């Protein structure tokens, strides 16, 4: 996180990182770590690319058209610290670039793609945006994605145990952040300052 310097318009002093700033990342990891992944067949991949207006060997970001670096979950698999029930499978994955994937996060793709979010296609003036939206809408209708009730499938004991482990890690992050603040203050007082 950058702090804008009042001394020079071309300089942003990097701020201190917060350990607790990773709570949502860790929560996501805890839930995606148990999310089922189904490997698609070559035929499914070809069909998916065809719906998105692409061919094998020419796979680009479905959102903006830049070079594909990964496949993104079209429908989020984690939202509000809970699994949505969607899993990792071809019916819920589209080729994406890192910028779009990071910018979209767990937001609904229709809402995000036309938003002013950083790196959202509309905000980057993607020329063929309406065509991309039409293809994504067709893709969304292509197949019914699998949706699981994690708690019901796992049973109360396994679900509560997994979520208890998550809470223990989050509590430890909070404790570590309190200690880091003490350390930051001690180090700041010991740091050399100009003019001294």
TrEMBL record:
Keywords of the record: Endonuclease, Hydrolase, Nuclease
**One protein family per Pfam:** HNH
Which Gene Ontology molecular function entries are recorded, alphabetically?
A: endonuclease activity
Domain named HNH is located at 61-107
Matching entries from InterPro entries are given as: HNH, HNH_nuc
Read off the CDD domains from this record.
HNHc
Gene3D superfamilies in the record, alphabetically?
1.10.30.50
Q: Write the protein's name.
A: HNH endonuclease
Q: Which organism is it from?
A: Telluria mixta
């Amino acid at each position: 996180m950058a702090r804008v310097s009042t001394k020079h318009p071309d300089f942003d002093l990097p701020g201190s990182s917060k350990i607790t700033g990773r709570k949502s990342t860790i929560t996501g990891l805890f839930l995606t770590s148990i999310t089922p992944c189904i490997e698609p067949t070559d035929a499914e991949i070809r069909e998916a690319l065809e719906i998105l207006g692409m061919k094998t060997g020419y796979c680009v970001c479905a959102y903006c058209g830049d070079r594909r670096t990964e496949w993104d979950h079209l429908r989020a698999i984690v939202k509000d610290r809970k699994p949505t029930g969607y899993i990792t499978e071809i019916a819920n994955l589209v080729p994406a670039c890192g910028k779009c994937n990071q910018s979209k996060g767990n937001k609904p793709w229709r809402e995000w793609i036309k938003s002013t979010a950083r790196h959202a296609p509309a905000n980057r003036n993607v020329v063929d945006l309406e065509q991309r939206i039409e293809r994504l809408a067709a893709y969304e209708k292509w197949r019914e994605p699998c949706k699981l009730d994690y708690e019901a499938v796992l049973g109360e004991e396994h679900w509560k145990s997994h979520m208890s482990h998550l809470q223990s890690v989050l509590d430890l992050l909070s404790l570590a952040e309190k200690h880091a603040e003490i350390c930051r203050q001690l180090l700041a007082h010991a740091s050399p300052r100009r003019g001294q």
